[in-house]
UniProtKB/TrEMBL annotation:
This is 3-hydroxybutyryl-CoA dehydrogenase. Coiled coil: none annotated. Belongs to the 3-hydroxyacyl-CoA dehydrogenase family. It comes from the Bacteria. Keywords: Oxidoreductase.
Amino acid sequence: MVFETVGVVGLGTMGAGIAEVFARAGIRVVGVEADQEALDRGLGHLEASTGRALEKGRLSAGEREEILSRVTLTTSRDDLRDADLVVEAIPEVMEYKVALFTDLDRICKPSAVLATNTSSLQVTALAAATGRPGRVVGMHFFNPAPVMGLVEVVGTVVTEPGVVTSVSDLAVRLGKTPVAVGDRAGFVVNRLLLPYLNHAVTLLDHGVAARDDIDNAMRLGVGLPMGPFSLLDLIGLDTSYEIMGVLFEESRSERHVPSPLLRSYVAAGWLGRKSGRGFYGESAAESTPEKAAASTVRVEGSQELAATLAAAGFKDSAEPDVVLRVGEAALGERVVQVRVTGKVAELSGSVLTSRQAVLCARDLLRVAGYTPVPCRRSVIDALLYAHLNDAVHMYSSGYASIADIDAAMRLGCGYPQGPFELMESIGLAKVRDGLRALYAEHLSPSFAPAPLLDQLVTAGLDAFPRA
Ligand code: 3HC
């Protein structure tokens, strides 16, 4: 299959990004929008994105011109008649998409492949709406499309042999890494990513920690490129809520119940970057560096932390202002439990701990160079371990290989390591034991260690089986 002219229908953020990716790879693009106003907005996205690359010196003015000249913009779908492939990126409404696919099927030549960039709808249902179900696939890009290195290529039970391979080869030509998967709600990335993001919203809703603290914990503690709330704002809260709904519809799992807080934000019209406000959006107040209110501190359970605080000028005393306790919990008015992950220090008080002690702990940890994350219990454990556990369940279900899941999360979401690589770095036993502790506390199936993880640890293994 030769793809020389490609149509992109819908030039919102994703569609325009996808058009740019094709044009950059030397492919002619016909970009279609419903009306002139939407077309102008689409052109604006293309110009802004390539303009930014020009500013950063990643494109020359000539290269930018060439890229833009490969894109023809039109409001007429009939202009897609010569396209070898059409990628659809219109809003996630099944009726619109079915109507579009019926239309494309009529307009496009019989050999053309029709692809959807849907993040949540069933590709098979779109295929069935056409007279060429064997040539309909998912081609799922990640936001921002010009940057993220993954394309999920979704084949269905009716896809003709060779189509998935040809579209995957095209993804390679675009400089992306394809991961070929079957048609299951959320595919690989959204099925793993969205429940984790939704879980972060639940923690916020339950007052476990504040928005910025949760974002800091996952970005600075785990090393993810964005915290869950920044990422929700990027993806769009409406899109995220819809994906959760589709996951729940298919799995009926507790893990996939959409957060009521997310629903409220969507109902309020706070959709993230696209509407100017989501979890972020109000101008953040300038934070003035706080001075530590504590001058004496005792650290119990970590010589490393004690040394760092001593080096930062804090002294021990018989009656310290605050006791930082690492490891086994202890109770006391001035005792604050601390867990250090990278440069993040999660801290929580017990029922006996005074608010003053928690504030002292926060301020002095900040002065000592940590990012303090006040929380009722560890945000990192709850969010990360459940997320990793989902990846083990996905692999065990036979949907995707360990290599594909790792590659998908690295390239689709910019993770420094895939979930399996991450579990191996942390230690399988630590992840399993962390899950067991969370399960004992919450009795939620999300935290019950996946049988494969449990068995590997029981067998004394510290790596997952790879083919
Ligand atoms: N368009 C084009 N290029 C962009 C861009 C955009 N919107 N945003 C960033 N870039 C480019 C920059 O020009 C820069 O390129 P350079 O390094 O060659 O100069 C590069 O990307 C890095 O950008 P910045 O330095 O400005 O910003 P960061 O280093 O903070 O990176 C990020 C930004 C790439 C978005 C990074 O934070 C990241 O990887 N975040 C995770 C995003 C993610 O998870 N996406 C997937 C969401 S799920 C999804 O899309 C599926 C859907 O179905 C819901």
